[in-house]
Fold this protein.
Amino acid sequence: MTVKKFDQYFLMREPDVVEYIQRKYDYFSPQAELSVKEIGDGNLNYVFRVQEDGTGKSIIVKHSGIETRAKSGRLINVDRNRIEAEILMMQEELAPGMVPRVFDYDTVMCCMIMEDLKDYEVMRKTLLEQKTFPFFADQITTFLVNTLLESTDIVMSHKKKKENVSRFQNPDLCDITEQLVYSEPFGNFSGKNYVVEGMDEFVQSEIYLDIHLRLEVAKLKFAFMEHAQALLHGDLHSGSIFINEQQIKVFDPEFAFYGPMGYDLANVIAHLLFAKFYSIATYDNKKADAFQKWVDYTVLQIVDLFIGKFIDRYDEVVTDDMAKTEGYKEYYLNQIISDTAGILGCELIRRIVGVAKVSDLTLIENEEKRADVERRMIKIAKKFIMNRDSIQVGRDFINIIKQFN
């Protein structure tokens, strides 16, 4: 029997994608004149926009490669795209309208066919332009509470939860997180960390030689690895959120797996802070001042709205009888906020010291100013890590941040 072109996996290029869409799907008419462009800017997947030239109608094809795009030699399980497709479909049920619509997933070609969000911008880009979004805190906390809480043991059948933990194992991408977030930035074990000029001695003394810091991060690392609390997005930074004036769309949950709930909340907050300190290093005007105040207020709102919505939602959806015990809800929530603070510190440090930088920092042209804000962020990060168990509400987060403005 002859094997047809798309009956066996291969890494597609732009011409293949047009042919693939026309052969496999009826989204466009057979006579449609289609163009395709690869628009992905990440290191793991290929993202193609397929568009009908006459009408502008378009669709996104997200295609998994068997190794990173940087050709590092690191092989990655292509099943991650299946996990992402299933996660997005589940999240659409729990938080309607807050994720891109998935039309199909092809298990052979490891392709997800999904909605094109041309009317949205990637949030990281908008933050670098100092745009503010008054509804963001409310929207992202609704997304977080609805998608995270419903995937826990306190809500789900325990048997179903265990099945989900197995179903959404993501060992290759979890290994990346375990190394790049919780190990390398605190010891430079593989010798790949680097910082801007003037930061070496500071990083050596404040991070690598701080045994008390390393101990606390070790606790956070193994809590991340061993605590299958909720189904996480796993990489919820400002580059994984599409936004416009009315709505957000959370995308790219390819790192999704079961872990501590505070991980997603911490990533959202950390990347708002990167945008704030980019503004501090780059601008000195009224717009910058207003933007920085908006970031502070948004961080405060995110924490407090999360707490309020979590408390309300907990009472609505909890099913486990022991989880209804008086005082347990508060205990559970306090641990989430403590985790959030500690993980926030790890995320700040790893983006400054580790190999996976963010454009919020790399685009700061003046290296002295960049080093200055990076030193301040490291001090903030250490405060969050070392004092995480005493941090309970949004004001506690802001009090630490404002010490180093």
Remarks:
- The two ends are 68 Å apart (CA to CA).
- The first strand starts at residue 34 and ends at 38.
